[in-house]
Amino acid sequence: MQSRSLRITAYTLCSAAGDGTAATLAALRERRSGLSKNDFGPAPIETWIGRVAGLEQQPLPAEFANWDCRNNRLAWRGLATDGFIEAAHEARARYGADRVAVVMGTSTSSIGASEEAYARLDPDGRYPADLRRPIIHTPHSLGDFVQHALGLTGISVTVATACSSSAKVFAQAERLIRTGLADAAIVGGVDSLCGSVLFGFNSLELVSAEQCRPFDVERRGINLGEAAGFALLEKQAPRGAWLLGYGESNDAHHMSTPHPEGLGARLALNDALKRADLRPEDIDYINLHGTASQKNDEVEAKIVADLFPTTTCASSTKGWTGHTLGAAGIVEAAISLIALEHELLPGTLNLRVPDLACGPQIQRDNVQRKARHALSFSFGFGGSNCVLVFGRDR
């Protein structure tokens, strides 16, 4: 259970709620959702989405043209906010290009480019010439792009565990640094909208035709979104929030439904608190997975009601961003860091009548209050669970 607390010396996010931490904070304060009616693709299904505007008109810089696709454009947009590229370059100068690991989470990588290639096969049945770039058709496209974009040459890992992907990158990075394989790590996650995701979730009858309503008694399902987020982790730094702990588990219960008692989620939560040497009463804020699907919210609400005191504030922020799949972990980790830094604990957009499983911890309205410790929950398809613990100095 031993782990090393790491400083988060830089972080950023880009989602439908805004580009960067300042824009995201403003959206949270103003209770302004980034969701809009679905207009993605030639035959949009009836739902709402968290779309990042302008990606179609923003190709990658010429030196990265080989990686150009929607997912990597979104990654570049995220890297370019909050001075993150500069922070990464400073870390490269401090430690060396081969000592800064890159650990990226994604669930679909650049599959949208592969969809387009199959839709535009040439008369010989081959990909069109402009899409004959193998790197954009692999699960490691994102990690390869980020490593090259930042000029790094060390370990580069892709984590693909559905919706927990970019939460588990923090755990992977901590292990790499603790065992001496890296001195610092760039962690993050990116997932972009594509037909496979939208139609796939629709076929599972998990997509809502209205704006998602996490933990509401009349919730109808999820709204999908796209996002990018990144964080820089260092073991010796004078400033920044702390990654205090993490917990990981696997339900192995069902491909798309959580364990009915939340067994795996509870195991991940317990391990995270043990690593951080904290108790439930020490937690000020929890950013819940809160997808607005029937079973996830029911199970998650019960865990919180059973284990945490009434003074803990908990919420889902997917009403601002949509469910960003493999990017959800990093986006919601970043929102947890915003909550700690700015003493704003977000409520839950669109929550009107809480489900009976909800305790008083789950908030509808924002709470302006100092917070020292926060948790971020990420629970993926197939029962892949991760809980992260963040803290700030007194």
From TrEMBL:
Q: Which family does it belong to?
A: Belongs to the thiolase-like superfamily. Beta-ketoacyl-ACP synthases family.
What CDD domains does the record point to?
KAS_I_II
Q: Which organism is it from?
A: Steroidobacter agaridevorans
Q: In which pathway does it act?
A: Lipid metabolism; fatty acid biosynthesis
Q: Which Gene3D superfamilies match?
A: 3.40.47.10
PANTHER family in the record: BETA-KETOACYL SYNTHASE, POLYKETIDE SYNTHASE-RELATED
- InterPro entries named among the record's database cross-references: Beta-ketoacyl_synthase, Ketoacyl_synth_AS, Ketoacyl_synth_C, Ketoacyl_synth_N, PKS_Beta-ketoAc_synthase_dom, Thiolase-like
Gene Ontology biological process terms, A to Z: fatty acid biosynthetic process
Ketosynthase family 3 (KS3) domain mapped to chain residues: 1-392
UniProt keyword annotations, A-Z? Transferase
Query: What is this protein's name?
Result: Beta-ketoacyl-[acyl-carrier-protein] synthase II
GO function term, MF aspect, one: 3-oxoacyl-[acyl-carrier-protein] synthase activity
PROSITE patterns in the record: KS3_1, KS3_2
Pfam families from the xrefs?
Answer: ketoacyl-synt (PF00109), Ketoacyl-synt_C (PF02801)
Q: Single GO cellular component annotation?
A: cytosol
